[in-house]
Amino acid sequence: MNILFVGDVFGPPGIDAVQGLLPRLRSELEIDVCIVNGENAADGAGIVPRQAELLLAAGADAITLGNHVWRREAIGPYLSSSERVIRPANLSDTAPGRGLTVVEAVDGTRVAVLNVLGSLYLNPPHSLFERIDALVDEARAATPVIVVDIHAEATSEKIALAAWLDGRVTAVLGTHTHVQTADARILRGGTAAMTDVGMTGPHDSVIGVESRLAIARMRTGMPVRFQVASGDVRLEGALVRCDAATGRATAIEPVRVTH
Fold it and tell me: Which are the catalytic amino acids?
C-alpha cells in the first residue's frame, strides 16, 4: 500500500497547497492513506477546527500536531471529539485529545497513526521513550501498519527513535524543523525513516516566516511580530510504500511539488 505523509502545513499558503495539490497527488501516486501534519496551519502556530476540516476535506485521512497545539483555544474541545486529528501522546495525562488513531484505506486496510513530541529542547511533560512502547503495542493490536510522527527539534532524537522502533512500525517520520532532509531510508528491520519530511508552505522565507522579520529579530534580539511569507509555495512530504500484511516498508522517497 502507498502512504503519503505531508510535512508541516504553514499558514494559508500551506492550506492552499494541500487543497490545490493533494487530490491530484492522491490519484497520481495511488495513495491509500494520507497523513498531514497541521501544526502550523493557523498563521504558523497551531490549528483551529475550521482549518483541520479544510485539510480533511482536501484528502487528509489523519492530522498530527506538535508543540504549538495549544496556541489556539478552540482546539481543545475539538480534539476531545475528533477521531482523526491527534496531538502528541506525551503531553499531560489530563490534556484533551489522544496521541493515537486508526484510519482505514478504501480497501479496508487499517493504518495506525502515532504522534509524539521530542523531549530535547521542547520539554514535554513526559519523555517520548516513556510512552512510545505502550502506544506501539496498542497500535499493533489493531494493525501491523503503523506510522509514527516524531515532532522534534533534535536530529539525534529522531534517528534514535527510528532505531528503537525498527521492525515494530512501518515508518518513523520527523516533522518540526521545516527543512526536508536527504536521508530517506529503510532500516534493517523494515522500518522506513526520514529525519524531517519538510514543510508545506512558502519556501521563500525563513522556515515559513517573512525573511525580513526573522532576520530583524535575529539581528536586534528584540521582539518582532512574525508574518507568514507568500513566495515559492511547495508541498513537501514523504511517500512510503509497504506490505499491508506485515507492515514492513518496501520503499520511501521524498515528495516535493511546487504549487
Answer: 68
